[in-house]
Write a structure and sequence with these properties.
The chain is α+β, with helices and mostly antiparallel strands. It is built from 12 helices and 8 strands. The two termini are 31 Å apart.
């Protein structure tokens, strides 16, 4: 069976234009095809986002895994993840299953569509760097939908004020090498600054029927923050356990992908800059 999966991965991906131009590690195609093959054997009632998210448990946390080429290219790396690439992988794999697409080519297609504004790579500034734009852009594509009701628990309003990337270009390889990109980043920051979104304040992220109704197993949790110039501090996948809501995430603290042992409410209070959560459903 393993040999069949290997052969399938090679045959299904070798002719793909993204593969031809950019390449990827063989284990990435093996992982994707193997996970999709396994998922096909599960009940249709399976929560695919949680199933796929758990496949990444233990994978090392590595920041800036997309910043490996001078020219913006589609980077595939299932062996090292940050919080955003974990979420993108989970979304792409879930879309494959829900749309009856099981090849590595299909996965590449969805990653590409998810990652870039209007589903088109037109350089570094077309990548969806700020997660608020990521949500809005992928909502327009019909891939996700942000939940902002009922109130409570969506009782707080975030007024987005973006500016972190243009204010700190030294933290981004592409902006250091190409200062001319900053103009494009500033334009995105300008377009989104002032927009308002409802969220669940961290004081309301506790046990209770209101939170149970607001957050479903497998939803994307986007943690809001009060850090200057940023909208979202961290991302993960919602996992309900008997004791309450937990976050499955690529953790900088744990240095790997983990299902946080503490409840999400406790986790938020461990980080003073975290203000609450925005909730995004994979459609």
């Amino acid at each position: 069976m393993r040999l069949i999966v290997i052969i399938m991965a090679i045959l299904l991906s070798a002719s793909h234009p993204v593969f031809a131009r950019h390449g990827y590690a063989a284990i990435d195609s093996l992982n994707v095809v193997g996970w999709l093959a396994e998922a096909r054997l599960l009940s249709p009632s399976t929560c695919y986002p949680v199933f796929f998210a758990k496949k990444f448990l233990g994978v090392p946390y590595v920041a800036h895994t997309l910043e490996v080429n001078d020219e913006e290219q589609l980077v595939i790396n299932t062996r090292q993840l940050d919080c955003t690439t974990l979420v993108e992988n989970v979304v792409a794999l879930t879309l494959c299953m829900r749309n009856g697409k099981y090849s590595f080519q299909d996965y590449l297609h969805y990653i590409y569509i998810i990652r870039y504004r209007n589903g088109c790579n037109q350089g570094y500034t077309s990548r969806l760097h700020y997660f608020t734009e990521w949500i809005d852009d992928n909502s327009e594509k019909g891939i996700v939908s942000e939940r902002q009701t009922p109130n409570p628990p969506f009782s707080a309003v975030q007024t987005v004020r973006l500016g972190y990337m243009s204010a700190h270009p030294d933290k981004y390889k592409a902006l250091r090498l190409h200062p001319d990109y900053i103009k494009g980043i500033r334009e995105v920051e300008r377009q989104y600054s002032g927009k308002k979104y409802r969220y669940v304040p961290k004081s309301s992220v506790r046990k209770g029927t209101a939170l149970r109704k607001a957050v479903k197993n497998g939803d994307i949790i986007a943690i809001t923050c009060n850090k200057k110039g940023l909208d979202i501090a961290h991302l993960g996948i919602a996992v309900w356990k008997k004791d309450g809501l937990h976050l499955l995430n690529a953790s900088q603290i744990h240095k790997k992908v983990v299902l946080e042992p503490m409840l999400l409410g406790e986790y938020l209070y461990k980080h003073p800059s975290h203000t609450g959560i925005r909730i995004v459903e994979i459609l």
